[in-house]
Design brief:
The protein is an alpha/beta fold. The protein has a domain of 62 residues. The protein contains 26 helices and 18 strands. Strands 14-13-6-7-9-8-17-18 form an 8-stranded mixed beta sheet. Strands 3-2-1-4-5 form a 5-stranded mixed beta sheet, with helices on both faces. β15 and β16 form a beta hairpin. α3 packs across α5 and α11 crosses α14. The longest helix is centred in the middle third of the chain and has 22 residues. The radius of gyration is 45 Å and the shape is globular.
Amino acid sequence: MGKHHYGVILDAGSSGSRVYIYRWLNAQAARANGGAQDLASLPEIKTKKKWNKKVHPGISTFGSKPELVGPDHLKELVEFAQEIIPKDEVGNTPIFLLATAGMRLLPDDQRAAVLENVCSYFQRTTNFQLPDCGLHVQVIPGETEGLYGWIAANYLLGGFDAPESHDHGKGHHTYGFLDMGGASAQIAFAPNATEAVKHAEDLKLLRLRKVDGSALEYKVFVTTWLGFGANEARRRYVESLLDSYPKTLELPDPCLPVGLKVNQTGYGLQPDLPELARTKPHLVGTGAFPECLKRTYPLLEKERACDDAPCLLNGQHTPAIDFDVNHFVGVSEYWHTTHELFAMAHKDKAYDFHTYQKQVTDFCSRDWQDIVKDVGSQKWGKKVDEKTVEEVCFKASWLINMLHDGIGVPRVGLEPVKEVGSGLGNNTKAMLGKAADRGFLDPFQAVDKINGTEVSWTLGKMVLYASSQMPAADQAMAVGFGSNVDGAKLPSDFQYAGGKYEPLPSDFDEGNAGGDDWHDRIFNGSYARRVPGILIFVIILIVATYLLCGRERRQNVLNRVFGRSTPDTPRWRRRKAPGFLNSKLFGCTTSPTYDRVLEAAALEDFELSDVEGRHSGSSDPSRTGRSSGWATPVTRAMSPDVLRTSPKNKGYFDSPGLGITPFERDGLIIRTDSKERLAVGRRSRAGSPTRRSPLMTPYKESVD
């Protein structure tokens, strides 16, 4: 187990799926290496630009063929993630697939089948951590998506870790969050104190956890407007045009540049298509942006009954927004629609309504053919294609209406100061006067990245999960979110972050907070599966070393382990090595040693032959065998001193060097002959205590 944890999230949207990979320090490493400020902060989540990848189309297109979602859609994303994450960390890495608006529109049975096949594919083909399919693979409600986005924005802006640096007044230090995709739009913010008390039952209770284990708690309002994403809004807009111009084939569209012709789904028309053959209604651009704003305003459906006041749009309840303390950041379409073509007026600055509307009006009134030439010359960069410029006029009008007439963001520099309770919130003259350069302290600013990190709801999900992996301080409650209820008990609808904290081996290693040493890694993750093989290898190595070390060394080892017996040791006290160690395989079956010979025979059977007999080269086999000298011990009757002083042996013991006299040379011949007789008698030469087994070759030679 290394010092880093990893997490994988797949954002399964309506147009495609994108995988995001994140990394953070485990609890032990974060606490060991962090200062006071680090300990009082949420875990530091890291990612890289190259750690995400998108494929098309969305998984909702597999509703009628769910069995193909794995091999035809997820395979590429999973393999990409496995290339990024270290192999020995994959088993410790959680994987999530969270689907959004596109999957919400599928029939229940198709949605369930797709999710089941997604989870099955992960479990069959990967080793990622996936303990609960229901929690890790799901279609998340728009409210949950908005809450994750709110966490990501405040995490990157510093609203959680350094509240004193983000004091917006009235004890408020968090930022509001706006998101718009293709099918839905979300809003999330923490109301001011008055509104929070008034609408307590409408808020979500969110709990996070710092590195030191202490808790953070927030009460957030979140809602989603399904059908209010850019693509769904345009579909409803085209339907309104068809209703306004019945039985008309060419529908004048003020939300398209002059002369542009598109079909009802928004794609440009070619001369040979049925729409131009006067068989299907199609749209023709008139480039009148003020008229476009008027046409898109009814799509807010502000006329719907508000059963639970106050409401912003579509009759959905929303607490009043105090823009004096609630400063919003917008992502996705809010960013793309304001920056892909019109970034020069407010790059890295707050949104300026007056400047933005003027830019869009001028652009949309241009002739389509001139715009196409600018696209060809890459006036707006390589990423801006004809499809982008076809859609930008409608999207700009929809964004302006959503921001100002829907949500109530003040039109900076054009609107008077509002008071709370007006439905639009309030602002101050001081804020309005500095709107161009105050950044995130303005009512609204579109963002894509903050400090180099993309503001994505997937980051918010991972912040929530990573904080749940920090060991809790005393009495700290679980990390997650649910209904806003008082008391020490979790609400019945509480949703955990994706897993409870479980200490890992590296978390207990005080001497190595990083956990990167081999003894921390070998029994964790994928190494755990290698332990049996490692043990078998060690056993084989020990046996091989034992066999190659030589018989004498093996015998010494056995004597040390099992004890050494002598002839005087009573039989009942003698210890023997196990039978298999005395087998021929282990080279421990030997010819009797001198001690064993003395033990097995009477000493009177062994005595030196007469010198004359050996000198004369007697041919008596029995006598020759007994006097061969190969196994002749010192006799009981003749000590070495006696032998030395004996007249018969005086020359033998007094000779220099080897003492080989003519007498001894004759004796040597006899001994050699006796040795050969032993071989003829099938007495094992390998068993001799002065010989080596064929297995007892040097270790180096055996290896080579």
